[in-house]
Amino acid sequence: MTQDEQKQAVARAALQYVVDDAIIGVGTGSTANFFIDELAGIRDRIQGAVASSDATAARLRSHGIKVVDLNDVTSLPVYIDGADEITPQGAMIKGGGAALTREKIVTSAADKFVCIADGSKLVQTLGRFPLPVEVIPMAHAIVSRKLAALGGEPTLRLKDGQPLVTDNGCYILDVAGLQIGNPAQFEATVNNIVGVVTVGLFAQRCADVALLGSPDGVKTLVF
Ligand SMILES: O=C(CO)[C@H](O)[C@H](O)COP(=O)(O)O
């Protein structure tokens, strides 16, 4: 299977985690987009979805799926999203699509996180993919220096030659050169830097289930 075929296969497999008559959380990125397209086929079975980005909200609406404000939701049985890297223990790097803060907020509201990813995302140690860190714009230089002091090589993410601005009006630093041996501890350390909005490490709250693509089909990991 190609990478896209793997993404489509895990997206389809994730439908089994959709809870009837519920509002579900939906992530951001190309794998999440495949999932939204699959979800359209069973949209009458759910009440609606909480979106982790403006792009996801637009795609849900384009399929006639109701987008619900998280503030109006008291129960979110499941959140389904991709990842940039995931370990065999379920810790993840996310934020390649710049949606890490809303992804982490929706994750915190969900009973279960189902990660859907092609097999290339499974790694033994997080950090080959540059770690996204969302920052308050006035603090990007000072936060960069602090991340460099932790051993990383931060780069301000650009779009069309200008700093990329997230849905929250913030910037993203992509931190290369890390080998993250203790993801939960590193998540706490980076979150503690003043000016950081969110670090794209999902380790204190890992995935509960991962559906990973492989040449032979979808493999399920339960954490
Ligand atoms: O965290 C994310 C967006 O902020 C995505 O889940 C992550 O970047 C994976 O994307 P893709 O499914 O396109 O490989």
Automatic annotation (TrEMBL):
It catalyses: aldehydo-D-ribose 5-phosphate = D-ribulose 5-phosphate. Pathway: Carbohydrate degradation; pentose phosphate pathway; D-ribose 5-phosphate from D-ribulose 5-phosphate (non-oxidative stage): step 1/1. The keyword Cell membrane does not apply. InterPro entries: NagB/RpiA_transferase-like, Ribose5P_isomerase_typA_subgr, Ribose5P_isomerase_type_A. The active site is at residue 103. It comes from the Bacteria. Keywords: Isomerase. The keyword Isomerase applies. One of its GO terms (molecular function) is isomerase activity. Substrate binds at residues 28-31, 81-84, 94-97, 121. Its EC number is 5.3.1.6. Catalyzes the reversible conversion of ribose-5-phosphate to ribulose 5-phosphate. Homodimer. Belongs to the ribose 5-phosphate isomerase family. This is Ribose-5-phosphate isomerase A. The gene is rpiA.
